[in-house]
């Protein structure tokens, strides 16, 4: 395991990838062409499923202590509240939306990487690579112009929407640029008639204006431009938009950032090409509606890191990482579709359609089941891998998750060391025999199962790989065999 994994890009995705690999004991280098860490707020939302994964990694506490805990999101038309979607119904320990600037997310992830001995190599750019039979030969160019040849076991492009790695692979970034533009401001907000930690969306016949808390008195304000071309706004323009589309009485001041942006919906066909992987915005981009982008990329990292670490240790078949693209592309396509639909609903232009939308939202969200369903979908806890090639068995007749579904374990995980799958089963000769059959893949002890009548095999990223009834442990053993060289 002497060759490192080379991670390109030290944003939230690259830092998560590097930190997970380092936590699992895999040699890793993470490089970024910029000389210093990002200081902009950029992405703000961390949803419960991502917090659960950060918790399993041992660093959620720092995030929870730093960010704002949004208990709901509200939708308004002027002074009239159409809907309020509470997050307290989300079936997670983290039943809220964590609002935290991306600059803080990156700082905390870099601190976490440091606990495993890792560090970001800044001012260092990947300028070429050649994939070979035993790894990737990479050329790095340092800030002073010096070049370095690195022989990497794997190369992971976490280098954003304009990814050099993706372009060098010749991957087509298939999709569309939506015919709409937005202006954005991070500013002090006074007079907003919602709780200070609550995201709020205001609909108006001219368009929408949205407020997302950054701190107790600073917000991200986003508004669509309608037919107006993209341009850099000033504070006066943002104030005029808020005055027209908001509830009235809101004052903006002290802007920290003003910008504009367009929306792309794109995804690559292949997440893996030989020893090269793409993750985060390098693999998929979509509308910011729903705040899913950074979360999706970080979850890409949690999915891939344990698989690569096991392969590098010689404990899993080289084909194991093939499941990464199968699993994560399905998630990205669903989120791309969901965020696109949300964007189009928010930005309806026909006034009759707007009135119908407002009525449907007002009436529909009075139904608790609809509020719960929307909160659950936004939270990420319903993300699963029903078509994963790693899945085996069935939960039919058992009270617990099916293969490919999430299962949060309260014990049986270690904060560091090699990745280990966990058996969720009652203590029995059968469970002990399964663990003895694969001691290098499984945690040494089982943890309590969701149902005493079943056995669950849980992956390091908190998803079920296999389920069997007691007495059918061969299903679990066969699933483990397929992951290892024994099954390749």
TrEMBL record:
Stretches assigned to the FAD-binding domain: 4-337
InterPro entries per the record? FAD-bd, FAD/NAD-bd_sf, RIFMO-like
Q: Name one GO molecular function term.
A: FAD binding
Matches recorded under Pfam families: FAD_binding_3 (PF01494)
Record keywords, A-Z: FAD, Flavoprotein, Oxidoreductase
Listed EC numbers: 1.14.13.50
The cofactor named in the record is:
FAD
PANTHER family linked: BINDING MONOOXYGENASE, PUTATIVE (JCVI)-RELATED, TRK SYSTEM POTASSIUM UPTAKE PROTEIN
| Name recorded for this polypeptide | Pentachlorophenol 4-monooxygenase
In its UniProt entry, the species of origin is given as Komagataeibacter europaeus (Gluconacetobacter europaeus)
């Amino acid at each position: 395991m002497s060759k490192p994994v080379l991670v390109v890009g030290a944003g939230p995705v690259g830092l998560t990838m590097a930190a997970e690999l380092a936590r699992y004991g895999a040699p890793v280098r993470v490089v970024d062409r910029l000389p210093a860490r990002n200081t902009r707020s950029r992405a703000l939302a961390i949803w419960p499923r991502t917090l659960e994964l950060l918790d399993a990694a041992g660093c959620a506490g720092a995030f929870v202590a730093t960010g704002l805990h949004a208990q709901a999101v509200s939708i308004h038309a002027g002074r009239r509240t159409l809907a309020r979607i509470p997050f307290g119904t989300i079936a997670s320990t983290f039943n809220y939306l964590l609002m935290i600037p991306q600059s803080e997310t990156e700082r905390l992830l870099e601190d976490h990487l440091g606990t495993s001995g890792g560090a970001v190599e800044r001012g260092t750019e990947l300028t070429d690579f050649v994939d070979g039979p035993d790894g990737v030969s990479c050329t790095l160019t340092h800030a002073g112009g010096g070049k370095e040849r690195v022989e990497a076991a794997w190369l992971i492009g976490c280098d954003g929407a304009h990814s050099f790695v993706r372009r060098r692979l010749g991957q087509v970034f298939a999709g569309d640029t939506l015919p709409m533009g937005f202006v954005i401001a991070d500013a002090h907000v006074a007079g907003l008639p919602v709780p200070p930690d609550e995201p709020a969306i205001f609909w108006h016949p001219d368009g929408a204006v949205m407020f997302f808390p950054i701190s107790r008195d600073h917000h991200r304000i986003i508004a669509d431009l309608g037919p107006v071309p993209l341009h850099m706004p000033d504070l006066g323009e943002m104030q005029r938009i808020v005055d027209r589309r908001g509830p009235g009485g809101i004052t903006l001041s002290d802007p920290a950032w003003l910008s504009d942006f367009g929306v792309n919906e794109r995804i690559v066909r292949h997440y893996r090409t030989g020893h090269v992987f793409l993750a985060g915005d390098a693999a998929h981009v979509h509308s910011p509606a729903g705040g899913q982008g950074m979360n999706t990329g970080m979850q890409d990292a949690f999915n891939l890191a344990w698989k690569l670490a096991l392969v590098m240790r010689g404990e899993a078949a080289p084909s194991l990482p093939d499941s990464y693209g199968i699993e994560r592309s399905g998630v990205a396509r669903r989120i791309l579709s969901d965020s696109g639909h949300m964007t189009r609903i928010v930005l309806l232009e026909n006034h009759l359609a707007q009135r119908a939308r407002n009525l449907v939202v007002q009436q529909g969200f009075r139904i608790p089941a609809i509020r719960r369903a929307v909160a659950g979908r936004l939270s990420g806890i319903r993300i699963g891998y029903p078509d994963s090639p790693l899945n085996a068995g069935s939960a039919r007749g058992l009270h617990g998750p099916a293969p490919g579904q999430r299962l949060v374990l309260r014990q049986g995980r270690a904060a560091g060391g090699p990745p280990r799958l966990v058996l969720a089963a009652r203590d029995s000769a059968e469970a002990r025999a399964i663990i003895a059959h694969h001691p290098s893949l499984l945690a040494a002890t089982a943890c309590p199962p969701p149902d005493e009548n079943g056995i669950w095999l849980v992956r390091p990223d908190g998803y079920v790989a296999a389920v069997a009834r007691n007495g059918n442990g061969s299903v679990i053993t066969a699933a483990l065999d397929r992951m290892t060289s024994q099954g390749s």
